[in-house]
Design a protein that fits this description.
With 385 residues, the chain is of the alpha/beta class. It has helices spanning 93-97, 101-104, 113-117, 199-202, 227-240, 257-266, 299-303, 328-338, 358-371, and strands spanning 21-24, 30-39, 45-53, 59-65, 71-77, 143-149, 152-158, 168-174, 206-210, 245-255, 275-278, 318-323, 344-349. It has nine helices and 13 strands. It is globular.
Length: 385
């Protein structure tokens, strides 16, 4: 079974086992820019950054910066993999997945993502880390609840009923890193890395943070950007039925891996008032093997998990945003250049990186949601702090 042609442009390279966005710069030199987040066992988020530019050596030095201020220097050999056929073992999956316009816009690719998923049985070949029972909220910001998904009852955090008799706008928010599991999203975070997107709840918007299959102590197995789409849609069904939620004002948003998930969900459903994807990747092969539990060598499996192939399916307004020093080059930029769907808009935010962009964007978006009108322009997003 195939979901598109084989004529693909090598816009990315893959090496090692790190979670990174691999790309080529405008001169064709290899550039590796990595922006991601990871969740510790306590549910806290760590900020991790790798940056490097191409060097004419077989080895390259990377610097890893953690939020705690720890600086570690590691050396990884670089193997530049040549892009050949789809099934060649030496071919980089991220190179194959960062596709050319002739591939993603070809007539064969006009099949919808829902059609491509129908009847396809994904094969899970590895498991993720177990985080156990989700933390219980310590304040009154959230309740720990369960929602019915196709694999059983899954955990989620949701804003409790404010008791004012009103129906409020709501947003399903998907965090970065391993978002199959949920943890502390109520404690105060540094503005430079507020992955709880707290501006939404502070503005009176109902928030829901759904865990997904295989996360925490949930039933099911992690599938990585596949069956989890159905979990997010099931969580949205639960949210829409809450008596204090306006079912016509439900939004979807996410950051990093959550941004990638938000795009995939939006490519399968038109039920959201708008979708906000912060810092996604074009193709999940760009995560270097992390967060994907199928065979990364299967072109069909990876294609069904990669937003770039299915942008033509989006019917709700979708906003893809990233800091200028985040996952723009070689990832979002590729999608922006390839997109022909007027429902999707792309914005590069000056003065911000993959993490610092969250807080000011959440504030801007929350204000517009409360006012009932989303109107994002590049000019309106200038000077965000």
């Amino acid at each position: 079974m195939s979901f598109g042609g084989d004529n693909q442009l090598a816009l990315g390279y893959h090496w090692g086992e790190q979670d990174s966005v691999r790309s080529l710069n405008s001169q064709g030199r290899v550039v590796n820019v990595w922006r991601s987040s990871s969740r510790t066992r306590s549910g806290k988020f760590q900020r991790r950054i790798y940056e490097s530019a191409s060097l004419p050596h077989q080895r390259k030095q990377f610097v890893m910066l953690l939020d705690q201020g720890v600086v570690m220097r590691i050396f990884l050999p670089i193997v530049l993999l040549v892009v050949v056929g789809c099934d060649a073992p030496s071919t980089s999956q991220s190179s194959r997945d960062a596709t050319s316009s002739s591939d993603a816009s070809s007539p064969s690719s006009q099949q919808t993502l829902l059609e491509a998923r129908s009847g396809f049985a994904t094969k899970v070949v590895k498991a993720g880390e177990s985080f156990g029972v989700p933390d219980r909220p310590t304040g009154d910001e959230f309740e720990l609840i369960q929602y019915q998904s196709p694999v059983g009852f899954l955990a989620a955090y949701v804003t409790p009923n404010p008791g004012d008799g009103k129906k409020h706008p709501a947003i399903v928010w998907i965090t970065g890193g391993d978002n199959n599991s949920i943890g502390d999203v109520w404690s105060a975070n540094d503005r430079a890395n507020d992955q709880s997107a707290s501006a939404f709840r502070k503005a009176g918007i109902v928030m829901m943070f759904p865990s997904q299959r295989g996360g925490n102590d949930n039933p099911g197995k992690r599938e990585g950007f596949y069956g989890e789409v159905d979990d997010i849609l099931a969580a949205t069904d639960h949210l829409a039925k809450l008596p204090y939620v306006d079912p016509d004002q439900i939004y979807l948003g996410g950051h990093s891996t959550g941004g990638t998930m938000a795009m995939l969900v939006g490519e399968c459903s038109d039920r959201y008032r708008a979708i906000f994807s912060l810092g996604p990747v074009a193709a999940v092969g760009q995560y270097g093997g992390d967060y994907v539990y199928c065979d990364p060598g299967s072109a069909d499996e990876m294609r069904l998990r990669s937003p770039i192939y299915w942008m033509h399916c989006v019917k709700s307004p979708m906003y893809v945003l990233e800091g200028e020093s985040g996952n723009w080059d070689g990832a979002i930029e590729v999608m922006a250049n390839q997109n022909s769907n007027p429902k999707i808009q792309f914005f590069k935010i000056a003065g911000h990186d993959h993490f610092s962009v969250i807080a000011p964007l959440a504030e801007k978006l929350a204000a517009q949601i409360v006012n009932g009108q989303i109107n994002l322009t590049q000019q309106a997003l200038q000077g965000l702090r």
